[in-house]
Design goal:
8-stranded parallel barrel; alpha/beta; two-stranded antiparallel ribbon; 12 helices; TIM Barrel; globular
Length: 446
């Protein structure tokens, strides 16, 4: 079948909002198609080149951000804190791993979430599930839960404000390695990890000044960084409306993000999401879990990367600390034997989610760290390479994941559990994980 941006409509489409007013949806999509793109094709191609380098072992990918963004959190301090966390983590990884790091924010578009059920029941009342701010609202009222196509436009607007603010920060020198003090988070100064982090910062600063003395000039390439955005390509009406052709380049680009990915719930080979993603020129990620079969995985590789291009396909495994050793070696060997090119990334978050007796969802830091350690070791044993991590995290002082440097307990979760969907690592836990990756001999990339 010849691919077009709307080809997905001929395939089974799961996890899509049931919009009650088709005319209103059409009007919103017509308006969305006229709005400026959020990213450019040359930025997309630049990321593909970097992912190809990561595939070859010349880079490491740090992808992180909220499980699901909210319109209300499109605020300067929250966006700045997210960027600070990723910059600090990447600085630790650059220093410890002695390699370049590609930073991909899981934001500026992560406004939709898949749900395990189409509806939710409370006290005998059943309403549509909350599917993220780009679809409906979290309040448990009939009015809030009706899918509203005008929210697609609000999603574009909030994504534009977020990415443009991030670009402004970076272009203004916020990411300058000469001034890592810009990245401090006030609440994190009391962290038990602050001293270790500061030692790394001081070492990098001394090295930078030494190189500049040798060169006799400032090294301006350390004044700014590349930064890319990503989100799950879930609401296909939104993705289609932002899919465009550009002058002097073949094919179609999704210009709502640099790096869209497919989740486990929407990765069916004959499904709408795989059909949509196979036709765009962006690099594509796909989540794979313990239930994926060899044939399914090989089918995804063939469909999403038919020309076997470097930097095109990213396989994001999310197994769980207790299952990764039983399933990941099989998948690595399957892809290697078939000769498919792919960048492997570890998502240690989703396979380690648990629900407490209180009904609260959480994750244990030790499980998250264990899955990352095991992933590095398994790839090395299989003659493969782990090229990055995919994390749900925030720069806010939340208490949503157990353990970490402060050994957060179930009681601590009551203090600052703010996520509407999945639990996130807070700053300390995210930085601790990056320090472990950078410092432990057992997780040094090969």
């Amino acid at each position: 079948m010849t691919w077009q941006p709307d080809s997905w409509q001929q395939k089974p489409a799961v996890q899509q909002p049931a919009y009650p007013d088709a005319a209103a949806l059409g009007h919103a999509l017509d308006e969305l198609r006229t709005l400026p793109p959020l990213v450019t094709s040359w930025e997309v191609e630049a990321l593909r080149n970097q992912l190809a380098e990561a595939e070859a072992g010349k880079r490491f990918v740090l992808q992180g951000g909220d499980c699901a963004e909210s319109f209300a959190d499109c605020r300067a301090e929250i966006i700045t804190n997210r960027l600070k966390v990723l910059l600090q983590m990447s600085l630790v990884l650059v220093h410890g791993m002695q390699t370049r790091v590609t930073r991909i924010g899981r934001f500026a578009g992560q406004y939709a979430k898949p749900r395990s059920a189409d509806s939710e029941t409370r006290n005998g009342v059943t309403l549509p599930a909350y599917r993220g701010d780009i679809v409906n609202a979290p309040e448990f009222t009939p009015e809030a839960r009706i899918p509203d196509p005008r929210r697609l436009l609000r999603g574009h607007m909030h994504s534009a404000m977020t990415i443009n603010f991030v670009r402004g920060l970076i272009d203004g020198g916020f990411a300058d390695l000469h001034h890592p003090e810009y990245w401090d988070l006030a609440w994190a100064k009391r962290s038990p990890l602050a001293t270790e982090y500061q030692l790394r910062v001081d070492t990098i600063g001394n090295s930078l000044r030494f190189m500049e003395r040798l060169a006799g000039t400032d090294l301006h390439e350390f004044n700014r960084i590349d930064f890319h955005t990503s989100h799950e390509a879930l609401v296909l009406w939104y993705e289609q409306a932002q899919t465009r052709q550009v002058p002097r380049k073949p094919g179609w680009y999704n210009l709502s993000t640099h790096f869209p990915w497919i989740g486990m719930r929407t990765a069916d080979l004959d499904g709408a999401h795989v059909e949509y993603c196979r036709g765009i020129r962006n690099p594509i990620g796909v989540k794979i879990g313990p239930s994926i079969t060899d044939d399914w995985l090989l089918g995804l590789c063939r469909t999403l990367n038919p020309d076997n291009e470097a930097g095109r396909l990213v396989l994001i495994h999310r197994m769980g600390a207790g299952k990764i050793a039983d399933h990941l070696p099989r998948l690595i060997e399957c892809v290697k034997k078939a000769g498919h090119r792919a960048l492997w990334i570890c998502d240690p978050m989703h396979g380690n989610t648990q629900t407490l007796a209180s009904g609260v969802k959480t994750r244990r830091f030790d499980d998250i760290a264990s899955e990352v350690r095991q992933a590095f070791a398994i790839h090395a044993d299989c003659g493969s390479r782990l090229g990055g991590v995919h994390l749900e995290l925030t720069g806010e002082d939340v208490t949503e994941c157990l353990g970490g440097a402060r050994d957060l307990s179930e009681k601590d979760l009551e203090r600052a559990y703010r996520s509407q969907v999945d639990p996130r690592l807070n700053y300390e836990q995210a930085l601790e994980l990056s320090l472990q990756m950078a410092s432990s001999r057992g997780v040094t990339p090969h």
